[in-house]
Design a protein that fits this description.
The protein is α+β, with helices and mostly antiparallel strands. Helix content is 31%, strand content 31%. The structure holds coenzyme A. Residues 39, 42-43, 90, 108-110, 114-120, 143, 147-150, 152-153, 156 line the site of coenzyme A (COA).
Length: 203
């Protein structure tokens, strides 16, 4: 049986995007992308419209973090590069590797290039790597109730709703539920087959 090893960080090639392992050199582009109010709100990084989306980290601190992550054994951080422009438009991340249980977490954000199919392709490429190259059995994520676009993308790729943590986030003084979703290896195989054959993927 394949043993997961997140120090293996290959480049993943798609039609619209390339997922390239992020390094400290990507910090300015990734930092600029994160400095976006909608991204910060939808990823739970801020708690009101008045908060600074840039967060508390200096560029130098972020560089140190991306440098560490570029060799980390518990996460893979890919820069999402749009083929048509060559620009870094976001990141796709497998994190919290649990080797004993063959599971990990997933997070993604895209800035300035949303609603063009890039997020769906990035999620599919990342899941293909998780299940087919790393041999994982389960990938889980959290998505807030006020983010139907992300939920749609995850459902298309085969993630299943497992439960809801009620009022897990406070935003602008209002409570927002957080949904737990996950996809298992056998579900990925079904969904991958469906999308490769061009069949309608269940919503
Ligand atoms: C979530 C995210 C990665 C998706 O990537 P994307 O490139 O924008 O998404 P895609 O273009 O591949 O697909 C979007 C899908 O959502 C649908 N959609 C868009 N807005 C929607 C809405 N308000 N409600 C329901 N579905 C919606 C689109 O129609 C499309 O589905 P379709 O292919 O069936 O038509 C990206 O939008 C993003 O980074 N958003 C901000 C940060 C974020 O939300 N991160 C995830 C946190 S859990």
């Amino acid at each position: 049986m394949m043993t997961p090893d997140f120090t293996r960080k290959p480049t993943l090639e798609g039609e619209l995007i390339i997922l390239r392992p992020a390094t400290a050199l990507d910090t300015p582009a990734l930092s600029a992308g994160m400095d976006d109010a909608e991204t910060a709100r939808l990823t739970g990084s801020i708690h009101s419209d008045d908060d600074d989306p840039a967060g508390p980290w200096s560029l130098a601190e972020l560089e140190t973090i991306y440098e560490r992550w570029s060799t980390a054994d518990d996460r893979i951080v890919w820069a999402i590069v749009e083929r048509s422009s060559g620009a870094v438009v976001g990141e796709s991340v497998l994190n919290d590797l649990d080797v004993a249980n063959l599971s990990c977490g997933f997070r993604i954000w895209i800035s300035g290039a949303r609603d063009r199919g890039l997020g769906t392709e990035a999620t599919r490429l990342t899941m293909r790597h998780a299940f087919e190259e790393q041999g994982l059995n389960r990938v889980g994520l959290e998505v807030f109730d006020f983010n139907p676009r992300a939920r749609r993308v995850y459902e298309k790729v085969g993630f299943v709703l497992e439960g809801t943590r009620r009022e897990a986030l406070r935003y602008n003084g209002e409570w927002v539920d957080a949904h737990d979703m996950a996809i298992l290896a056998r579900e990925w195989r079904v969904h991958r087959g469906n999308s490769e054959r061009g069949a309608a993927v269940p919503a």
